[in-house]
Specification:
about 140 residues; mainly alpha
Length: about 140
């Protein structure tokens, strides 16, 4: 193997050069720039204020979710029991007023849903003490 000597080989220039007298005043320039720039400091208590407001907003939203969900799920349709109770306590309504409001479709639905057999009807009439009132209605 041949001996390699670094001093004898041609040297490659890097291409980077520092300006003349750059490091003579370097420390003064750096200290001057440090004194000129002011660092913006955010106090710790202001960060806590933002965090507490964020947590409070999240808690309010979390508490509002069930309320909003319950409000949207409530049905506006009346169930049959509520409607019957309301109509039974209204003294100014009678059966003729209700009949006037029925259409032929409603009457057909009532006929289909109420199918009494003859035996059931006889049992009701025989066991009722106020048979005259039932017959007159």
């Amino acid at each position: 193997m041949k001996a390699f000597k670094l001093e004898n080989e041609p040297k490659i220039t890097t291409g980077f050069k520092t300006p003349d007298h750059y490091f003579d005043n370097f420390s003064k320039k750096v200290l001057q720039q440090i004194n000129e720039t002011e660092v913006k400091v955010i106090p710790l208590y202001k960060r806590k204020k933002v965090l507490t407001m964020l947590v409070a907003a999240l808690v309010v939203i979390a508490l509002m979710i069930p309320i909003v969900n319950n409000y949207n799920n409530t049905s506006k349709d009346l169930d049959e029991a509520t409607l019957e109770t309301y109509l039974s306590y209204q003294s100014n309504l009678n059966q003729y007023d209700l009949i006037k409001e029925l259409d032929t479709k409603d009457i057909d639905k009532l006929n289909k849903s109420v199918a009494l057999e003859q035996e059931t009807l006889e049992d009701i009439l025989s066991s009722s003490p106020n048979i005259e009132n039932l017959i007159s209605e």
